[in-house]
Design a protein that fits this description.
The chain is an all-alpha fold. It contains 17 helices and no strands. The two termini are 20 Å apart.
Length: 463
């Protein structure tokens, strides 16, 4: 793919990078705003108390695991609609969007029940003070009630972005972030006669904000003239179960890939919970900041899924391969800049999360690991996005299983907790060292697979 970039003119490369950036930038702002709700939750809970921060850390780990996994399944709509658009099949886009909303609602209800019914099992695992466990479960309950709205919003997100209109997503997400702050404050401190929920109030605010996201984005799509020719809101369709099987065939591997990555971080949070609230709070602060930074390559990956999907739908496989190379180069450049910024400003970053000197010291050390894996994390994320544009999702899922659970979680447990190594257990630092290894392995394997499959499809189209 780098060979494709070398052969292309500089003007052509810059033009495609600009096109990709214009599509990715609004989605990046939107995703940063969405993750920013977690940042706001963490900061506001941290200033209430360390126990509140620990409850938000554990509750959000459970919520994010379920949310991101199901979001990955709904992401199947991105390449499907992008292929329709690239092939000029505009009459099929509206119906796919309507079925996508039903699909999102069903997945959201499943996620809600999973979070509510899984709380007794989570209590058996945790070994924390009773009031911290109660606050964690209350956070999970509030967030779970917003899950159906969250998945319907992701279906609308896929619809708008695949039709080259990501700005609506950005505006709605910024409004939701602004709404989250007063909702958090009201529910944490119990204003207007409401009970003071402490850190758990952040979970209930999250659930309300997701329903706002869904309603506002649907209203915008129904009102904006650009979407009218595709007919999403012209009629109400009954659920088409045959379509959902097709969505699941493409989306389940994506969801499992997302689960492998996010569960790696979530299970680490649960494993280090036994090391005390200081470790949990430090880990959560660094993880939350890493999630914010991750939105840059993630937005490029989402935009690349759309751009590659449109080119593949139109049968332009040479362009699809070229676009993939531009996406990888763009993401690599941005990750290099971010790595340097994190290394230089890690002490200032961790100070935003907690005034506790012990949390600041441990968190600043963990940020060194986060800076180290910026390059490989960006590469593996963007390569996965390009592969989704080709509708290739199964092999990336297998790669993520081997890299994230085999190297990331397995090696992390060995380095962080086991006592049979020649040296003492590294604790939470051992888990973060394993993250660097796992993301590097995933990056090499995914780029190799993308290069091979994009070349193979190009040769087939030529023949």
């Amino acid at each position: 793919m780098l060979f494709e970039l070398n052969r292309a003119s500089r003007a052509e490369t810059v033009q495609e990078a600009g096109r990709l950036t214009r599509l990715a930038l609004p989605m990046m702002v939107a995703q940063i705003a969405q993750v920013g709700t977690g940042f706001v939750d963490t900061v506001m809970a941290g200033h209430v108390g360390t126990d509140d921060l620990a409850a938000v850390s554990l509750g959000s780990s459970v919520f994010v695991t379920v949310y991101v996994t199901l979001m990955g399944v709904v992401t199947a709509l991105n390449p499907i609609i992008a292929h329709h658009f690239g092939a000029g099949e505009h009459d099929r886009i509206g119906e796919t969007g309507r079925q996508g909303l039903w699909f999102g609602l069903l997945l959201g209800l499943f996620g809600m029940l999973l979070m509510l019914l899984g709380q007794p099992l989570l209590r058996q695992w945790l070994d924390l003070p009773a009031h911290v466990e109660d606050m964690t479960m209350l956070y999970i309950t509030g967030a779970a009630l917003g899950m159906p709205g969250a998945m319907m919003h992701r279906a609308l997100h896929a619809y708008a972005s695949s039709l080259n209109r990501p700005r609506a997503i950005m505006v709605v997400s910024l409004l939701a972030l602004a709404l989250n702050v007063p909702l958090n404050y009201i529910l944490i401190h119990g204003l207007f006669g409401l009970p003071a929920l402490g850190g758990a109030g952040c979970g209930w605010a999250t659930g309300l904000v997701f329903w706002f996201n869904c309603a506002a984005l649907f209203a915008y799509i129904a009102w904006n003239r650009h979407f009218h020719p595709y007919g999403l809101t012209t009629r109400l369709s009954r659920p088409d179960w045959g379509r959902y099987l097709a969505f699941l065939k493409l989306g389940l591997p994506i969801g499992l890939s997302f689960f492998m990555e996010v569960s790696l971080f979530s299970f680490i949070a649960l494993l280090v919970a036994k090391l005390g609230t200081l470790v949990v709070a430090s880990h959560q602060a660094v993880l939350n900041f890493s999630s914010l930074v991750y939105m840059v390559p993630q937005s490029i990956a989402t935009a690349l899924t759309v751009r590659v999907g449109q080119e593949v739908g139109a049968g332009r496989y040479h362009r699809a391969r070229f676009v993939s190379g531009v996406g990888l180069a763009t993401g690599l450049a941005g990750a290099a800049v971010m790595m340097v910024l994190i290394l230089l400003g890690r002490h200032q970053v961790i100070a935003m999360y907690s005034a506790d000197p012990a949390v600041q010291t441990l968190g600043a050390g963990l940020l060194i690991f986060a800076a180290t894996y910026q390059l490989t994390d960006a590469i593996q994320t963007i390569a996965s996005g390009a592969l989704r544009g080709y509708k290739l999702t199964t092999v990336p899922m297998v790669i993520h299983v081997m890299a994230f659970w085999g190297l990331g979680l397995g090696l992390g447990i060995v380095l962080g907790l086991s006592d049979w190594l020649p040296f003492s257990p590294m604790g939470v630092q051992g888990f973060w060292a394993a993250l660097v290894v796992s993301l590097t392995a995933a990056a090499f394997m995914l780029v190799w697979y993308l290069a091979r499959e994009s070349r193979r499809r190009l040769h087939r189209s030529v023949e």
